[in-house]
Design the sequence.
């Protein structure tokens, strides 16, 4: 967990890394075509992109309220592991 927290937080002021925040919110709220373009920019293998999109299709079926709840819980987890 410490390694995850190091990646997520900027040590100087324990602010959520903007890139990670963008990825989390993008995964939960961005439309598939735009999200797929964002993944393509990472030069990830096609199999990895396909797997991520399969999971995203599942989360896209969740209600907006549930996705907002997931985002809130993830935020609390990130704060808990503050460096």
Sequence:
């Amino acid at each position: 967990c410490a390694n995850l927290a190091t990646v997520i937080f900027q040590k100087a002021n324990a602010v959520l890394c903007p890139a990670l925040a963008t990825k989390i919110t993008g995964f939960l709220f961005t439309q598939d075509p735009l999200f797929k373009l964002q993944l393509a920019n990472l030069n990830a293998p096609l199999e990895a992109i396909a797997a991520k999109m399969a999971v995203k299709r599942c989360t896209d079926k969740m209600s907006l309220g549930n996705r907002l709840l997931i985002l809130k819980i993830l935020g609390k987890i990130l704060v808990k592991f503050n460096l």
